Amino acid sequence: MPQLLDQGKARTMDEFIGQLRLLKAWAGSPSITEITRRVHQDWRSAGRPRGEWPARSTVGDCFRVGRRRPNPDLLLAVVRVLAGDEAAVAMWRQALRTVLGEAEASARVCAYDRLPAGPSLLVGRSRPVSRTEAALAAEGRPGVVVMEGAAGVGKTSLALHLARRAQARKHADAPALFADLRGFAPDRPPADTAAVLDTFLRLLGAAGERIPHGTEARARRYRQLLAGTGAFVVLDDAADAEQVRPLLPGDPASATLITSRRLLHGLPDATRRTVGPPAAADSVELLRRTAGAEAVTADPTALRRIADDLGHLPLALTAVGHHIRRHPGWTLDDYDHDTVITLALEGGVRRALAASDAQVAPGARRLLRLLALHPRDRTGVACAVALAGEREQTVREHLDALSATHLLAETEPGRFRMHTLVRAYAEERVGIDVPGTSIRQALGRVRCALRDTAPTWPRCAAGPGRDVRSTAAARRRAVQWRTTGWAAATPPLGGSH
């Protein structure tokens, strides 16, 4: 039997049912009546009483999506009938356990009728604050703003700051709701929308026995309770538009802030704001405040160098600032480029980027790693195609996926930039995930491409670039490939490049 079910593929019950339908087709598309007969036969042989045998309609329900309480025993009985292979049944059993565990975990939500305590420091950001507040106050329609940006860029801090400012202006009875949707949580599945609605309804005073079943019915009741209240809702770390759409109050008096690492399509009434790193001066000030009194009088040039090395990413600045505070014996000169990159990765940046990385398809993940071999932080489609060794259309789709999750930034059509910390993460991963043979093949494809496109090479590589130093073995390997392997793959073309 072909491996129709990849355990990592089915993460929800609906996806599991989709795979079960494929198994049914592979088995020759037997009728529900025939499947029921064979299940009865198996259960009779196993000595199960006739009263436990499923009805034909119950067996048919095994192939229906949208089920709330599936019968695992019957599902596996159907698999056994269709697969006829105990080894395959064992694989499906493990996958079903995973799916049911994910479903149970997704139903455990963090939702509150108050704003949680957020980071106390918000330095700068005056322009995004004013622009977002203007969008939230738009007349005649619900104020919905989606704040999209890379991991660690400060979306949640900004959202909570805006929410507190709005709450201070509203009357005391205006509801304030917050939910962590866990769209990119590294160790837990995204929050189930129906479970979030259940919690919101209880927080708004609905009795448990009066809460309807089903996401749509709960969403209608939720909007009824919020109508005219001037509610402010914060939906943090959204996975996609489908997850957040039922959670929108839909009332002109309300306001909703959504944060996500992904471009959220399918929210036509929402205003989108891309949150980038703060300005250089604000980054230095954040680093100074986090580091404490010792850094207040420190050399501003050294602080600026550290902020530049970290690409002005707030999560990284905070991690390094805390290290400076806790290690008074260190001088700022001890915080060289390699050290601050390592401290940032260890201080939460690696974990955050890994969660974003896990959300894209394997082909896009592989391309991200190969891009770490490029000598500069900017590259074009042609170089990406050569590195990946795939069709241009496929590579463009990978680049779009990486841009949609803010692992790359498209600075102009067909030109992409990799943040310095994303590059450091990719350097680690390419040394772990990509064999040396594949790296040599990628560089060889670049060499072949250059034979045909030498005049365009400056657009592709644009010179030797900088040398990102690294103490991690995997990153050293990537840097070595980039400095020696790339040079070997790209012979001198004459002139300055």
TrEMBL record:
Keywords: DNA-binding. The keyword Plastid does not apply. Residues 141-290 form the AAA+ ATPase domain. SUPFAM superfamilies: P-loop containing nucleoside triphosphate hydrolases. InterPro entries: AAA+_ATPase (IPR003593), P-loop_NTPase (IPR027417). GO terms for molecular function: DNA binding. This is DNA-binding transcriptional ArsR family regulator. It comes from Streptomyces echinatus.
